[in-house]
Amino acid sequence: MITTAQDEINLYVFAVRAALGDLPESLRDELLEDLPEHLAEVAADGEGSLTDRLGSPEAYAADLRMSAGFVGGFPDPPGRTDQFKEMRDVALARLRVADVRLGPLFGAERASEFLVQLRPAWWVLRGYLAAMVLAWMLDDSGQPIGLLPRIGGSEAVALLLLAAGVLGSIWLGRRSVRLTHWPQLALYAGSVILVLVALGGFLSADSSSRGAPYADVNYENSNPYGNIEDLFVYDEQGRLVQNARIFDQNGAPLRLGNAYCYDDSGNYTEVQTLTYPYCAERDPFRAPTATASATAGEASGAPGANGPGPVPPMEDGSGVSPSVRPSPSPSATSPSVSPSAR
Amino acid sequence: MDTTQLLKGVLDLACLAALRDEDGYGYDILRRLRTAGLTEVGDASVYGTLRRLFNAGLLTTYVVPSDEGPHRKYYALNPAGRAELQRSGKVWHGFASTMDDLLRERETA
Record's PANTHER family (chain B) (predicted)? Predict the structure, then answer.
């Protein structure tokens, strides 16, 4: 049941404190202030459990109550804290009852005995959390930290920090029982903050692992067509092709851009058909003089003047010119050679 | 007759006396008392008594770090404690001799 001497002492002090539950909190704190150290001396000096050597914690508390008396323990001056303390004492008394009732569930006399056994696990977790918080505060690399306390994305630093955090936390945990009132309160407060931070971290890790397909996938950077709004197709002569339809190798229509237009005066028009360009007025190669009323006829009537120029060269040279498809052979310009293509 | 009942009345004096020649920490004082023959003195009683004497202003304390264990709180008699030891010691001697006389009378009677 009992893992270490320190745990045994903690349990014993806890039980003595519980048995003195009716005393004012301040008196009880003062009375038990040195008890852990004292019991450590007792434990270090001989064999046998504390209960064997000192009797039950309840009997110990009774002796203590009688011998310590109430000297110096004048009733606390009435104040606002009294009510708070009273409420806390009532809550603590209820907790003790629940503690004993829940004990069998954990196979122990009290549920708190089981929790005390879990303490080292909490120390390790606390060390990890402290390392994470430290990394989070010190890391300014802008990279996501992940689940290890990385600083500047370094795994080595992460492992070092993790080891330091865990060992430090264990060391602190083994010492914590000897701390005086205020350092102990500070430790508790720090632990509460760590738990809150951990809850926050857990929730965000949970939601990012659940919502992975939606989380921060940056289409802007990964997809070169992400910022395309409209598509303009030009023929060999540099004439804008109106009402073009584009397909992939499977015959599936390609859907690019936003199917709406703003004309020059800012009016919004929803585009009904899936043909490109959606907004012919926004032809990037139109002549400066062309207006929104420019028609396809006018645009095609001035080849080269306001088009991109004949046959834009393909960057890799292996591309197929848009004009090839209607031709039966690649060398459509020379009909005399075509019989070989049949 | 139960010695623990008797101890209750004299534990203050016993603790003060145990500190007369040398300062000591709680468990140390307990051992002195037991070595001196008060074998039934309880740990909690000594701990509680020391706290009470300290609160009553008869003892001073100081902490000594220990290499192998937790730090130790040493108790020492202050002038008020020495005065109390002397006064209570007289009371005890008077009481004890009265009891001795009483017992002797009964035995010889």
Answer: PADR-FAMILY TRANSCRIPTIONAL REGULATOR, TRANSCRIPTIONAL REGULATOR, PADR FAMILY
